[in-house]
Amino acid sequence: MAMRMSSLFLRTLRENPADAEVPSHQLLVRAGYIRRVSPGIYTWLPLGLKVLKRVEQIVREEMDAIGSQELLFPALLPREPYEASGRWTEYGPNVFRLKDRKENDYLLGPTHEEMFTLAVKDMYSSYKDLPVSLYQIQIKYRDEARPRAGILRGREFVMKDSYSFDLDEAGLDKSYQQHRDAYIKIFDRLGFHYVIVQAMAGAMGGSKSEEFLATAENGEDTYVRCANCGYAANVEAVQVAAPDPIPYADLPASHVEDTPDTPTIETLVTHLNSAFPREDRAWAAGDTLKNVVVMLVHPDGSRAPLVIGIPGDRDVDEKRLGAQVEPAVVAAFEEADFAAYPSLKKGYIGPEVLGEASESGIRYLVDPRVVDGTAWVTGANRPGHHVLDLVAGRDFTADGTIEAADVRPGDACPSCGHALESARGIEMGHIFQLGRKYAEALDLKVLDEHGKQRTVVMGSYGVGVSRAVACIAEGNHDDLGLVWPRDISPADVHIVATGKDRVRDPEVFETAERLTRGLEAAGLTVLYDDREKVSPGVKFKDSELIGVPTIVVVGKSLENGVIEIKDRRSGDRREVPVADAVTEILAEVN
Ligand code: ATP
Ligand code: MG
């Protein structure tokens, strides 16, 4: 097919849109692929839709290749299934909710576990029906707190989601592996650099979960990897290796000391070194136990404080903490909250007043490094006072541990102990052994070979299809514009006719038109710049901005019987005789 720019629904822009910060967002808007409707909500213009469809097609082909079957659920969904799984509440403000004329509750699907589970329950009842894998490529809705970077994090976006249904864990492992292999093929074909990292397994715990992250310096996900053993994990999923407990029989008793004006770790360490100097070495931030208080807001709106005890040389990592407390969200602990919980003395919080069994009842979780026998300097719950030699397991016991401390380059690899490196990426896909959570909630059972009811075990697998478009653009551009990989480009060839108009330069337009038809007949998609009275400069700029990998210039050189073929990526150009043009271009693009 051919798209003629004289009539194509396209306007390129010379300036970056004011709200666009990352190159993919700037270029996709400027080159006329997408257009903003509202924050996180975009229109796909003809060129953009072509790219989106090509990405969809790659995903579709690889899903079909593993025997997954495509279907399509509605995006507009009734409340009941989500009520049954608990997610009507759990999702909180992230979900778009609406009512019909009879006041019934509906939502716009943020993800479709419930619908897939119910569909299988509706149609299947025997182990003989399993395994089955189903997928859809569909528009999802999430009222993201921070829509970002155009289509990279939208509130309406296209996702491929698939689910596997198996009788047992061995079957699930196989389905998971098939999806993993398919994802490797998909992301290889999409042409961006990616890493596969361990991810949060979520509420089920223990089951396998991996993310495919496109490597990108401005990505929202931080991951760590170990050059020694190959371990790679999203920081959210890093499990700090807890040291062995230390015998504490010979440790000195704890003692409360006057530490005036020491509400921060820095002031405390300075004070310790002047007032209580150690003989072996100086006090350091890591000798202190910092108790950070946050407010957890649960999906039902209830609020409860949580105190996190971490070594004073660490900070609480918001994302790690957020992932741990899901579906609750973390809010700041305000002055008014301190007033409501008078046992918490700002800057001097200590374990004595904490814990679910304590008088305050405040939940207290500590970093895994706070093992029994470790001695700490920490708050004495009185302004200007700290307690020294407070020993975990002897003087206090927390309600449990939490993986909320930041993970840093150089930290020990949880798997081999070597130093970790850190890098950033964008989550493109997520594969996840879901287990029986939804099958149990929605009662999806089949009869096994002995005639017994068995709960089905599920896997869940997502690809960010529209996000992939942004990600590919992010990884494939230069100062002039986009540079699409061949398999993703909205067209195979961009023909530029540089003549003034059809009256003054009939040969240029006729040759370009003939070439367009010839390539079209050979099965190529051609973007043909047939605009009259548009300067060659403008046309070249547009072709560079739009980013079709092969640009063909039909113009002045026709006098010598040649046209020019230009490689958008390398900038290399070569002249070929008009007579050979179709053959030469076909050789170039295939
Ligand atoms: P994120 O951590 O980026 O918010 P998620 O873990 O919530 O993503 P999943 O529920 O695992 O996302 O969804 C599957 C895939 O859908 C993700 O891997 C991602 O590529 C894509 N995706 C998720 N949210 C968005 C969004 N708001 N806009 C575009 N793509 C998204
Ligand atoms: Mg995910």
Report on this model:
Belongs to the class-II aminoacyl-tRNA synthetase family. ProS type 1 subfamily. Its main location: cytoplasm. This is Proline--tRNA ligase. With 590 residues, the protein is an alpha+beta fold. It has three domains: 289 residues, 2-Layer Sandwich (BirA Bifunctional Protein, domain 2); 147 residues, YbaK/aminoacyl-tRNA synthetase-associated domain (YbaK protein); 97 residues, Anticodon-binding domain (Rossmann fold, 3-Layer(aba) Sandwich). Helices cover 25% and strands 29% of the residues. It contains 14 helices and 32 strands. The strands form eight sheets. Strands 4, 8, 9, 10, 11, 12, 13, 22 and 25 form a nine-stranded mixed sheet that branches. A six-stranded mixed sheet has the order 1-29-28-30-31-32, with helices on both faces. Strand 19 and strand 20 form a beta hairpin. Helix 1 crosses helix 11, helix 2 packs antiparallel against helix 6 and helix 2 crosses helix 11. The radius of gyration is 30 Å and the shape is globular. The two termini are 16 Å apart. The relative contact order is 0.14. The mean pLDDT is 95. The structure holds adenosine-5'-triphosphate and magnesium ion (MG). Adenosine-5'-triphosphate binds next to strand 9, strand 22, strand 25 and helix 11. The site of adenosine-5'-triphosphate has 15 residues, from strand 9, strand 22, strand 25 and helix 11.
